[in-house]
């Protein structure tokens, strides 16, 4: 069974709500309730419900997802104490003005694929690291194992952090890296440069550190 990313599912839920807000066929009284703030709250309660029901019963997850709009618009008759402090309270409820317009249908239908509350954050982090090593996808790296090598290096960087070069050197050679190697790849230097080059082109330190470095945007330039 395919597992859906909870983050993307909730993001798409928000997009559906914005479409409803801009749909003139929906009653104006209901669309007025879909402010940017309320849409954010609706997404937040959906994410919270996914977290609470993780690895539980799919039917419970679907019930709580469907109750999200009721909770946000002050109808707490079906809420649960685990995510609501006003269980049973229906005073000032506005849910009748915002009838079910279908925004939740797709999210609820994927309940069985969202029950584990999984995300693809780790995959996206790895791919962002890989993009740094393959020059921003600007080169043909499919020959002679070049892309595979960069993918393996990205895995080392992902698993071992910013000190992956030294750790890998020691594992392969059983010796400590030399003076020049350590000079440019120490964890302390990397962290220090990261902190003091924020702002990029508005930061003189960034411009200085960038000089002499091989970057994706300068790759292939002639000096």
From TrEMBL:
Protein name: Mutator-like transposase domain-containing protein
Superkingdom classification of source: Eukaryota
A Pfam family reported for this protein in Swiss-Prot or TrEMBL: Mutator
Protein species of origin: Ignelater luminosus (Cucubano)
Mutator-like transposase domain boundaries: 2-84
